[in-house]
Amino acid sequence: MIARSLGASALVTAAVAASVAAPARPQATVLPAEQQIASAVLPAPADLQAGATVWGYSADGRLVKLRDGTSHMVCLADNPREERFHVACYHDSLEPFMARGRELRAQGLAQPAVDSARFADITAGRIRMPSLGSLYSMTGQSDSYDPATNTIRGARSLFVVYVPFATAASTGLQTTPARGTPWLMDPGSPKAHLMFTPTMQ
C-alpha cells in the first residue's frame, strides 16, 4: 500500500538519512564491513554496484565510509539501530542534499523541520540540487536480510528521480500515489521527485 503520509514518503525519508530516532532492532549487531557493502549496493543497477561508494556503520554505531567508489553512485548500508532493514543508493550529485538531511536528523530535527532547513539552504545557494538525480532503495522486515545469500526476503523496492521544482503542468505526471506507474511527489518544491514503486519482490 502507498500512502503519502507513511508508505512512499517514509521510504524516501529513510533512504536519505542515518536515522537516530527509529525504534531499535532487538539485539542489533553491526554486520562485517564486507557484508554491509554487499547488501548496501543491492538496490543499485547491476552495472553500477561494483563502483559505488559505500557508507556503513562502525562497531560503535558511527556512520563511516566503508569503500571509496569509482562511479557516481553512493550507497548507504542498513542502520542496525532501525527496526526495519533498509538500504539505498543515489547519484552523487544528491550528496549535499542527503548529507545535510543526515546532519539535521542527528541534531534531533524531524520532518518537516529537516526539509524547511534544507529548502532554505537551497534558496540561499548553500546546497545545489541537480536537474535530475536518481535514488534506489530496498526495504524489508528486521529479519528479512539473509547474509548467506545476500538477499532481502519480501523486499519493497522504490525508484526515485529528483526533478527539483517540477509540477504536474511541467511534466504531465499525476501527483497522487499510484503503484506500478510514475507519479510526482512534492511538486513545485526543491525536492520534487518522480516516484515509481513496483510490486513487492
Summarize this, please?
The protein is an alpha+beta fold and 201 residues long.
Describe the structure in your own words.
Strand 6 and strand 7 (151-152) form a beta hairpin. The model is unreliable at 1-23 (pLDDT under 50). Helix 4 crosses helix 5 (113-124). The strands form two sheets. An eight-stranded mixed sheet has the order 2-1-3-4-5-8-10-9, with helices on both faces. The relative contact order is 0.17. It contains six helices and ten strands, in the order αααββββααββββαββ. It has 201 residues and is α+β, with helices and mostly antiparallel strands.
Global morphology:
globular
Going by helix content, strand content and strand pairing, the class is alpha+beta
Helix content: 10-25%
The largest sheet, given as strand count, sense and whether it forms a barrel, is: 8 strands, mixed
Rg, Å, rounded: 16 Å
Distance between the termini: 14 Å
Strand content: 15-25%
Low-confidence stretches: 1-23
Give the number of DSSP strands: 10
Helix and strand run: HHHEEEEHHEEEEHEE
List the total number of helices.
6
Mean pLDDT: 87
Kindly report the spatial arrangement of strands forming the biggest sheet: 2-1-3-4-5-8-10-9
Topology:
Blueprint: H1 7-15, H2 33-40, H3 46-49, E1 53-57, E2 63-67, E3 73-76, E4 85-91, H4 95-106, H5 113-124, E5 133-140, E6 145-146, E7 151-152, E8 156-162, H6 168-171, E9 183-185, E10 193-196
Parallel strand pairs: 1-3
Antiparallel strand pairs: 1-2, 3-4, 4-5, 5-8, 6-7, 8-10, 9-10
Helix pairs in contact: 4-5
